[in-house]
Prior knowledge:
This protein is mostly helical. It is built from 33 helices and no strands. Helix 9 runs parallel beside helix 11.
Amino acid sequence: MLKKILLITLLLSVFSCAQRYASVPQGERTDLPEEAYYHYILGYDAELSGKWEDALKHYSEVLKIDPASLYIKTQMSYIFLRTGKVQDAIAMAEETIKTNPDYIPGLMLLGELYNSQKNTDGATKVFERVVKLDPTQDDAYIFLGVLYASDHRYNDAIDVLESLLTIDPDNVMGIYYLGLINMDLEAYDKAAEYFKKAIDIKPNFDSAYVNLGIISEVKGDLKQAEEYYRRSTEINPHNTIALERLAQIYLKEKTVGKAIEQLKELSVREPANIDVHRRLGFLYIEEKQYDRAIEEFRIVLEAKPLDTAIRYYLAVALEEIDRTKEAIEELKKIIDIDPKNIGAFLNLGFLYSKEGHYADAARFYEEMLSFEKGKPEIYVYLGLSYMQMKDYKKAEAVFTDGLKLFPDDAELNFNIAVMYEKTGRFDEMVKHLKHTIEINPEHADALNYLGYSYADKGMNLNEALSLVEKALKLKPDNGYIIDSLGWVYFKMGRYDDAAETIKKAVSIIGNDPVIYEHLGDIYLSQGLDKDALKAWEKAVEFQEKEEGLKERVEEKIKNLKLKIPAPGGSPGRQN
């Protein structure tokens, strides 16, 4: 990849024909008849003023008087080129050379024109002829060297450029291009020597510093590379390659803040460079500066409204700062552009679920299944949406359809097990939880769910303890699993261990009603009636999080106040 970049850079820096077509060098003898000279002066004046049609008209008058004027034909070729009439420029230049095959200004122009039209063979032959005719034509050597290099004739390229240096030892461009060719050959030490020599001759040669920076990067010396790039930007603040490379170095060094500053500077230099805004947006997301990410992504979308990838990340940034409605609108726009965009559909379903709009979420997941049945997670999310709506019949149908296609998908098995627990089908729940653990022995949620369910029924307590302990090793800071462990201890009669463990769960998750209910049950078993009452009252405070809990715990509170022993235990629940 580096070789391609270097060669393209090299070619672009030499063959920018549109920027090189100045007039034929002043001092060229016109040798025009006296009667033609008047039109020549008028044409030349029009050319200086940018009045190209007037210039062509007067030069045409000159050719009527002196049809053999090579100078005027070449001058007209340059004007054709300036006005975008490349084929006319080539035709005129070819006519000039046909008249006089050794006319150097005409040959130089024709070579450039051929190259601009990707006629590299023609351009090569022209510049080879120029070098033979006039060994003092420095530009011809450089053009020829680059043409050879573009054709992978590296030895010929080096020979012709070294020949130039025997004639003109301080030709800085010849030295520079030898450096580029050696970079292309991965002869980095030799390339660096040429670039340093070019800098000795031309101390403010910013491009040479850039290439020395690239060589330092290749060698893994990022500090030295940064120094070279900084020197380049000091010389030329508009050197966007140096600015880009600096940003890349900062990214490699994980100094995202510096990379952002570098790209911001680059965006000032190149306000139309949409890719800079794209990259800034991603960096701002990485830095959690979501407002700024949104600004950058909107700039990109102004220029490229059909860019669904950027619109997706815009939605992500909006979601992160709770601008959910705007995020939903952006995702809908993606679907308008790309009606089968899986990522947009999935995220829309997630956002609708997050907002509690489970029916809308289900609608989008159903639509996805109309064109995409190859992703088990769609069945999972759709089934969960129906479960949130307490439509367990539809949830079971969706999970069952999914399991027909993906019988060994751990999440489908786990979630249908949860659904079975919700509908009181204990044996089927156990069956699918066990299958989940067979598929993924480190599925912490399934381990915990099965262990808790056993404990809650007072069965298989040793196995329950083993399952929950394994889950806790996988997720040591999970308050729900810690609660399950405490509940296993309680069912095993280890009341002190149970109390300490449940207290730890409360310290992690302080608003879960079931954990407070468990704590109250444990306190009651220890004879700590007042503590039990406080814990249960706390459970009722958060009762909206657990269906059916309010009535159950209020009955325990009532019985305790009447000094009637409360029934132990509480039903299973999803953590």
